[in-house]
Amino acid sequence: MTSRRFLLKLRKTFLTSFLSALALAFLLVSIKYIYIPASPSQDPIIEPFVKHNISCEGIYNMDPVEVGKSLIIRRKTIEEGSDESLIKTTEDCPFFMKHRGYGNMCISEEEKDFPIAYSLVVHKNAWMVEKLLRAVYSPSNIYCIHYDQKSSAQFMAAMEGLARCLPNVFISSKREAVYYASISRLKADLNCLSDLLISEVKWKYVINLCGQDFPLKSNMELVSELKLLKGSNMLETSKPSDLKKERFLYHHELQEASFEYKKLPVKTQQEKTQPPHGIKMFIGNAYFVLSREFVEFTNSSAVVRDFLAWSEDTYSPDEHFWATLVRLPGVPGGLPRSHPDVTDLMSKTRLVKWHYLEENLYPPCSGTHVRSVCIFGAAELYWLLNYGHWFANKFDPKVDPVLIQCLEEKLIEKQKILQKQTTLICPKG
User: Fold this and answer.
1) Are 385 and 60 in contact (CB under 8 A)?
2) How far is it, in rounded angstroms, from Cα 99 to Cα 243?
3) How far apart, in Å, are the Cα atoms of 326 and each of 233, 279, 280, 316, 339?
4) C-beta of residue 189 within 8 angstroms of C-beta of residue 146
5) For the residues of 276-330, what is the DSSP string, one character each?
6) Measured at the alpha carbon of residue 89, what is the angle toward residues 85 and 91, in degrees to the nearest 5?
7) Are 204 and 114 in contact (CB under 8 A)?
8) In whole angstroms, how far apart are CA 1 and each of 100, 377, 386?
9) DSSP three-state, residue 48
10) pLDDT in the model for residue 429
């Protein structure tokens, strides 16, 4: 369904009856939560997993009463599990794996023969990272977690707990202190990619994620989509505007900033030299879906090493590094320099909704905005799952926990439907 048709449906189906449905919800609906109890052997202070008593099918079909209930839930202060509670929960790995569903996952022959690698670059909110990991998890895949060296000790310990409990999850052997828009963000992914290349799992493609991403496809769907790439890569790559060119035409210095990441690259008047080896610059974003052959090439190429070194003092090099490399002549799965721009809406790697493009390219944000980016709300569930992208950004349980719960439910449902059509390999016992 197109954005325009979706918006029309939203207005006709939802907005016209919203006020009456919301009033009905306030009068008749009692919002309840279902708790999964903690293990008796654990400290009772551990927060339980919260599941909201709501129909995700109703949310998906834009039922006014269910959407109204989700808005009521959003108004309540819901305490998410603390980082400390994930540390405590992962002290008992069998309990953790059982109650989060890792231990009894079956896989198809197709999934077994087509493992996927993931690079997760994260820095806060351990339970949200766990939810993301659970949503993309398959026993046949391999997962590298890079946590920011500036993260809290509790967050780091929670990530170590995940890696200890899950046999195909590991912590990056080299970790960066990640600063916004600096080379450290790119190096975090590169550290994971180097580790993934020497892992025993012979993965076919690698996907990078951050802590506010979430998948829109089940693992079986992703395997099918990745096979269709036939060795090519999936990422945004476009000719830079004059404004974007300033990111790499001038030297940038990392300076102190009153910002979440503490420091920020600041443009100077010092002009940079031209890119090495006659490289022609392209711009994109930090998100990629890369073939193993492409990653092996970039890991061993002297040209790539020189380009990485040249990019050290640029602004947000992760947003030009991959977009440019995929255009290098002769790279595995690359694109010719003459190939038309591949925009973020054409690349399926990440669906991001920008405030200034709403109602033109996509329907309005039903959550909230942070720095012009939509943090999605429950009313966008149908649009997210049917737009065609593989992942989306941004999600936050403090903004809308119902959307995350319903995405989890829908992905599990789709995985089960697809697995019914094939032979499965299941854990013994």
Assistant:
1) yes
2) 50
3) 8, 11, 11, 17, 11
4) yes
5) GGGPPP-B--S--EEEHHHHHHHHH-HHHHHHHHHGGGSSSGGGTHHHHHTTSTT
6) 120
7) yes
8) 33, 19, 7
9) coil
10) 65
Q: Rounded mean pLDDT of 360-381? A: 96
* Residue 261's pLDDT band (cuts 50, 70, 90): low
Dist. CA 58–CA 65, nearest whole Å: 8
Residue 39 domain boundaries: 3-77
Q: Tell whether 288 is covered by a domain.
A: no
Query: How far apart are alpha carbons 74 and 154 in whole angstroms?
Result: 27
Locate tokens 């789709």: which residue?
414
393 within domain boundaries: no
Tokens standing for residue 330: 């002769």
Q: Is the pLDDT of residue 157 over 80?
A: yes
pLDDT, tens digit, 9 for 90 and up, residues 70-104: 999 998 877 778 999 999 999 999 999 999 999 99
pLDDT tens, residue by residue, 181-231: 999 999 999 999 999 999 999 999 999 999 999 999 999 999 999 999 999
- What does the alpha-carbon distance between residue 288 and residue 286 come to, in Å, rounded to a whole number? 7
Backbone angles phi, psi at 425, to 5 degrees: -110, 115
Residue with tokens 């909110």: 125
> Residues 80, 82, 85, CA angle at the centre, nearest 5°?
120
| Assigned domain for 319 exists | no
Catalytic residues: 319
The dihedrals phi and psi of 354, each to the nearest 5 degrees, come to -90, 135
**Secondary structure percentages of the chain, helix, strand, coil, to 5:** 40, 15, 40
Answer whether residue 12 is part of any domain.
yes
Distance CA(132)–CA(129), nearest Å, equals 5
How many angstroms separate the CA atoms of 112 and 424, rounded? 10
Element (H, E) at 208: strand 205-210
Beta-bridged to residue 147, according to DSSP, are 122
Q: Where are the strands (E) in 82-234, listed by range? A: 107-108, 116-122, 142-147, 169-171, 205-210, 213-215
Does residue 394 have a cis peptide bond before it, meaning omega lies within 30 degrees of 0? yes
Q: Can you say whether the dihedral through the CA atoms of 413, 419, 425, 426 is positive or negative?
A: positive
* Total number of domains in the chain: 1
Structure tokens at 328: 């290098």
Contacts of 114 (CB under 8 A, 6+ apart): 140, 204, 223, 226, 227
Cβ atoms of 282 and 239 closer than 8 Å:
yes
